[in-house]
Amino acid sequence: MLTYTIRRLTLAIPTLLFISLVIFLLLELAPGDPMAQVPLTVPPEVKQQMREALGLGEPTHIRFGKWLWQFFVIEPMNLIDATLGTTIAEGESRVISWQTRSPVMDIVAQRMPQTLWVVAMSYVVGILIAMPIGIYSAYRQYSVFDQVGTFVTMVGYSVPPFFSGVLVIVIFSVQLGWLPSIYDTTLNVVDWATFKKQLMQMVMPVMVLALQTTAQISRFMRASMLDNLNQDYVRTARAKGLSEWSVVMIHVLRNSMIPVVTVIALGVPYIFGGAIITEQIFKVNGLGQLLITAIQANDLPMVQTVTFMLAVLIVLFNIIADILYGVLDPRIRYD
């Protein structure tokens, strides 16, 4: 397993390099001018000087090579400096946002906690709700609980976040007045009152994101459980006199988790994608809103960096899913 993990991590390096090249070339071909936000009163020669200052006058391969060096070498060195107090990367040029003229990773680090508060919590809540629903729906197939659960999950999976987000705002903020409709990113949790406010403003965005997570994972969990409940080893376990709890929650659940692990692991990057829309609706000042504003401002270094980070998540969690296969099922080995 260790050899397989090292091999997969090694193969991930050229994969990520190719992905970064594709993202860079796509952004190069995309329409838009980073100088479009500059006032019309600025003379053309000044705009040209600004383009050259941003590095737009250099050939494409030079700019791509510089971005690779800055992202993979300079930024980790800056992280080491910030952590250990060293000066390894002092004076080195970093990936700079065209819109704010600030280092991209510094802005990402500022926005990341807001996104993690919402995304991580919604994913955990979605999984904790989906697993029991899927297990019990499979065990009580065609019962009232199963039919109601099927209907609710299908509705949840079909409703897009931009609709469910507006719907919960209308119900819980406008009509009932229970929850705030705008996420206050400046709130500092220092006591019980501010902690309560933080929970209250997280309820609706977490609810919207967790809805689709719950719907998807519960359906996969139900289908996988149904497939294993009819296997011969289940009848053998019952014939040996094992309790129903041991049969279902130990033997059946462990084998059923193998395909579900894929859905859970691969769903992590996509929940970040869903957060882009949700953050716009609830005004969460996170990575999703950062990406949208960068696209609108033609801030290519910011767009490329954030998009590439999502690609890293996809590759990383693919590897994690494959490793968990071997942990859950001893028959699976990668020798």
From TrEMBL:
The chain crosses the membrane at residues 115-139, 151-178, 198-215, 257-277, 308-328. SUPFAM superfamilies: MetI-like (SSF161098). Residues 112-321 form the ABC transmembrane type-1 domain. It is found in: Cell membrane. GO terms for molecular function: dipeptide transmembrane transporter activity. One of its GO terms (cellular component) is plasma membrane. It comes from the Bacteria. It is a multi-pass membrane protein. Keywords: Cell membrane, Membrane, Transmembrane, Transmembrane helix, Transport. It holds the Pfam family BPD_transp_1_N. Belongs to the binding-protein-dependent transport system permease family. This is ABC transporter permease. It comes from Sediminimonas qiaohouensis.
